[in-house]
Design goal:
CATH class of the largest domain: Alpha Beta
Radius of gyration: 25 Å
Shape: globular
CATH architecture of the largest domain: 3-Layer(aba) Sandwich
CATH topology of the largest domain: Aspartate Aminotransferase, domain 2
Largest sheet: 7 strands, mixed
Distance between the termini: 41 Å
GO molecular function: pyridoxal phosphate binding; serine C-palmitoyltransferase activity
Organism: Smutsornis africanus
InterPro entries: Aminotrans_II_pyridoxalP_BS, Aminotransferase_I/II_large, AON_synthase_class-II, PyrdxlP-dep_Trfase, PyrdxlP-dep_Trfase_major, PyrdxlP-dep_Trfase_small
Strand content: 5-15%
Structural class: alpha/beta
Number of strands: 15
Number of helices: 19
Membrane topology: Single-pass membrane protein
Pathway: Sphingolipid metabolism; Lipid metabolism; sphingolipid metabolism
């Protein structure tokens, strides 16, 4: 990426005819990484320097049958309740159109609200629970009850203390209130206040932003970086600045909504490839090179691949070595979202690039957030200086969004220096290694108990499959009774047959906390019949045999 046009203005024209001829002649079928890919899109390992173990076990057929049956019964009773509401036999709580507006275009789509009205509302108490403490390894919860089946809630005034937090993205434990740890943040708060009241392009660039951007670039090993006040907007507001009409976006089917929104706002053509499936991606790349744009058959101005480091709902890690090989082979660009992976994987917490032992130069656009591993807010885009300079001028976030507030910037600096060891201690490295140990221990125990869990063995995002809709609410409520806070997810956020609980492991979790959670899961798994796995023991036990490593400050 020698100049801004390498990101912003297409330059694949001179490759098109050459690659077209090579593809048609079959040369690409004999050379390149396709030789290292099995029929299911999984590499044979020639590109990997370490074992790459992921689990996506399918449940027995009867589980899928009962899951569909559960949704079917819920739907039937939903229509019955709607019939009763229409005839005044049951109170109608949801918003409806006024009689005077019956000839207007409907504001509320009745069928679209059916799921919310009749299924989600029955288990709504398991979401949006108000927390009244720092979201560390434990938190305090405000108790609430409902008198009308979750349509409204009222607070009892009771605080549920010391709930084990298994849902927050506090991977390295920097969401903390220790006075000594936050001393520098307090100083910056007193010096700068809480807000900037301006954008980066006007009066909103402070010395703290410059310091943070230099630190991020150093941490990632790239030329430059730019920070933004909101992680979601880092994707959704910057992708449209990088691609537009005449460009092609190849997006993983499980990409985060921020990536999806940014791709749609860009006006570029979007094509979806199967999750982490290299064959699916290569087919789209080949077709894009051979056929070009629809109708005109001109070469695409630019082809960009959008992927995540760790997928937040699956717990899987991107197959970066293979994707980089494809990207180089077909002269495409790679946009890597490391929201969940930066700080969480890699020997020193530098994300999936370090995890696979690759160079940051292999990725054209490095994106990440500070909302998870660094216990703060905002996001960054990093890479070549030409790229970052272009975004400083053209990014919608830089032009219109308020700058990151100084205390948040200082919190990120504090946490990142700790991870890098620039604070004079090894506490950051200890946190990274402790997270890895906790992750492998937690996943191994769940495998041994017989649960079906998704994702990579090194991913701190651990989805435990529940499947049946009735078990979503029962699982979360029972866990809270045991003073354990969990996140449960169902359709439409997941496929209809793959409802799940999503655990996020933290370096701040003690072994005693994890054992408490695991014992509760073991008991609840038997009670709710959640142990669907046909492989009760991990197929890779050697990965979990590790010695305890202590580092002195």
């Amino acid at each position: 990426m020698a100049n801004p046009s390498a990101v912003c203005n297409g330059h694949l024209h001179h490759h098109h005819q050459k690659q077209n001829n090579l593809l048609k002649s079959g040369i690409y079928k004999k050379n390149g990484i396709t030789k290292g890919i099995k029929k299911n899109g999984i590499s044979n390992g020639t590109l990997y320097k370490k074992k790459f173990v992921e689990h996506f076990e399918q449940a027995p057929m009867y589980v899928a049958v009962f899951t569909f049956l559960g949704f079917g019964v819920g739907t039937i009773f939903g229509y019955l309740r709607d019939f009763m509401r229409a005839w005044g036999l049951e109170k109608r709580n949801i918003a409806t159109e006024r009689e005077q507006q019956k000839d207007f275009v409907p504001l509320y789509q009745d069928f679209e609200n059916f799921y919310t009205r009749n299924l989600y509302m029955r288990i709504r108490d398991n979401w949006n629970r108000p927390i009244c403490s720092v979201p560390g390894p434990q938190f305090d919860l405000m108790e609430r009850v409902t008198d009308d089946y979750n349509w409204t809630f009222r607070f009892t005034g009771r605080i549920i203390k010391n709930v084990i937090n298994m849902g927050s993205y506090n991977y390295l434990g920097f969401a903390e209130t220790d006075v000594n740890a936050l001393k520098t943040v307090t100083i910056e708060l007193q010096k700068y206040g809480t807000g900037i009241c301006s954008t980066r392009q006007e009066m909103g660039t402070l010395d703290k932003h410059v310091e943070l951007e230099k630190l991020v670039a150093k941490f990632l090993g790239v030329e430059d970086a730019m920070v933004f006040g909101m992680g979601f907007a880092t994707n959704s507001m910057n992708i449209p600045a990088l691609v537009g009409k005449g460009c092609l976006i190849l997006s993983d089917e499980l990409n985060h909504t921020s990536l999806v929104l940014g791709a749609r706002l860009s006006g570029a053509t979007i094509r979806i490839f199967k999750h982490n499936n290299i064959q699916s991606l290569e087919k789209l790349l080949r077709d894009a090179i051979i056929y070009g744009q629809p109708r005109s058959r001109r070469a695409w101005r630019k082809i960009i691949i959008l992927v995540e480091g760790i997928y937040s709902m699956e717990g899987s890690i991107v197959r970066l070595p293979e994707i980089v090989s494809l990207k180089k082979k077909y002269k495409a660009y790679l946009y890597l979202d490391e929201a969940h992976s930066i700080g969480a994987v890699g020997a020193t917490g530098r994300g999936v690039v370090e995890y696979f032992g690759m160079s940051p130069d292999d990725v054209d656009v490095l994106m990440g957030t500070f909302t998870k591993s660094f216990g703060a807010a905002g996001g960054y885009i990093a890479g070549k200086k030409d790229l970052v300079d272009y975004l400083r001028t053209h990014s919608h976030s830089a032009v219109y969004a308020t700058s990151m507030c100084p205390p948040v910037a200082e919190q990120i600096i504090r946490a990142m220096k700790c991870v890098m060891g620039l604070d004079g201690t090894t506490q950051g490295l200890q946190r990274v290694r402790q997270l890895g140990k906790n992750t492998r221990y937690f996943r191994r125990r769940l495998h041994e108990m017989g649960f079906i869990i998704y994702g990579n063995d090194d991913s701190p995002v651990v989805p435990l499959l529940l499947y049946m809709p009735g078990k979503i609410g029962a699982f979360a409520r029972r866990m809270l009774e045991k003073n354990i806070g969990v996140v449960v997810v169902g359709f439409p956020a997941t496929p209809i047959t793959e409802s799940r609980a999503r655990f996020c492991v933290s370096a701040s979790h003690t072994r005693e906390m994890l054992d408490t959670v695991l014992n509760a899961l073991d008991e609840l798994g038997d009670f709710l019949h959640l142990k669907y796995s046909r492989y009760s023991k991990s197929s890779h036990p050697e990965l979990y045999e590790e010695t305890r490593l202590e580092l002195e400050d």
